[in-house]
Design a protein that fits this description.
This protein is about 50% helix and about 15% strand. It has a five-stranded mixed beta barrel with strand order 1-2-3-5-4. The model has no long low-confidence stretch (mean pLDDT about 95). It folds into two domains: about 210 residues, no CATH class; about 60 residues, OB fold (Dihydrolipoamide Acetyltransferase, E2P), CATH 2.40.50.
Length: about 290
């Protein structure tokens, strides 16, 4: 998926063009909403509170367009001009999930029509290391701070209303709890190959992983399920240094994958995303300190 800065670059332009006087702080928040499940997944994995595959299924469901819109509605109900804010957040959630599939991300994609369809959308046009990703990130690094600076004097109004807070809380609970009842959808569609990893007999089954830790000495990757999988190649050789690897192939046995293709990542994508999140937190924090909220 494009990093957070890349989303800022495209979505600032698209939102400012469609919504007259759209506030960059709300645009930035809308850019981040579909990624919140994946950010929280990383934190939860580090704490060891849940089974990794179940946690992945939860994040798959929660990061869909439908659940992103639930969260956008819960937030917008607390703001003045709630309808306009919801449309702005919803527009940015949709843009985010249309931009994500542009990058090559094996075994992944956007869920635009869940819970009615669990088919992943993937356009797979370029790798994170390639020029389009870098240019979009640079665009976001330049545009988002500039747009936030221009909007710095604008005030953001929240409404103290028990009815709105109650409705927002109900939507938030749906956002948090309803994914647990929908695991069967992504499992049946084998999203992220979760069903394959849970199968008792994996031999002969196709598998794809995006950006997993790779150990050169053992020629293995760490799957998101927490397992170490051995890699074999029918020709050529695997990288001689540790790194981050995307792979796709077929299981020879329960723990060994015969690769059809692999890609070594040399990208600062995570750092660019962290910088984008830091900038978003910073502009909202400045607004709070300046009593603009």
């Amino acid at each position: 998926m494009p990093d957070t800065l890349a989303h800022f670059g495209v979505q600032i332009i698209a939102s400012k063009a469609l919504f007259r006087d759209a506030d960059a702080r709300w645009i930035g928040l809308g850019c981040l909403l579909p990624d919140l499940p994946w950010i929280l997944q990383r934190a939860t994995l580090a704490l060891g509170w849940a089974d990794p595959v179940s946690l992945r299924l939860y994040a798959i469901v929660q990061s869909s367009l439908f659940f992103s819109l639930l969260l956008a509605a819960a937030l917008s109900l607390q703001a003045a001009q709630s309808r306009r804010i919801f449309l702005l957040l919803a527009w940015n959630c949709l843009l985010h999930l249309l931009l994500d599939p542009l990058e090559i991300k094996w075994g992944n994609g956007s869920l635009l029509f869940a819970p009615f369809s669990w088919q992943l959308t993937s356009f797979a046009l370029f790798w994170p290391e390639e020029l389009p990703s870098r240019l979009l990130a640079l665009l976001g690094l330049l545009l988002f701070p500039a747009a936030a600076w221009l909007d710095r004097q604008r005030e953001i109004h929240f409404i103290h209303s028990k009815e709105r807070q109650g409705a927002g809380l109900l939507l938030l609970l749906m956002y948090l709890l309803l994914p647990c009842a929908l695991f069967s959808g992504p499992l049946a569609a084998d999203n992220h190959f979760a069903a394959t990893l849970l199968a008792e007999n994996r031999k002969g089954r196709w598998i794809e992983f995006d950006r997993r830790p790779y150990q050169a000495e053992q020629q293995s990757i760490l799957a998101y399920s927490g397992e170490t999988l051995q890699l074999e190649v029918p020709f050529g050789s695997l990288p001689e240094e540790d790194g981050t690897l995307s792979v796709r192939g077929r299981f020879l046995d329960h723990q060994t994958v015969l690769l059809a293709d692999w890609h070594l990542h040399r990208s600062g994508r995570d750092l660019r995303s962290l910088l984008g999140i830091f900038l978003l937190i910073a502009v909202w924090s400045v607004a709070i300190r300046a009593k603009r909220i």
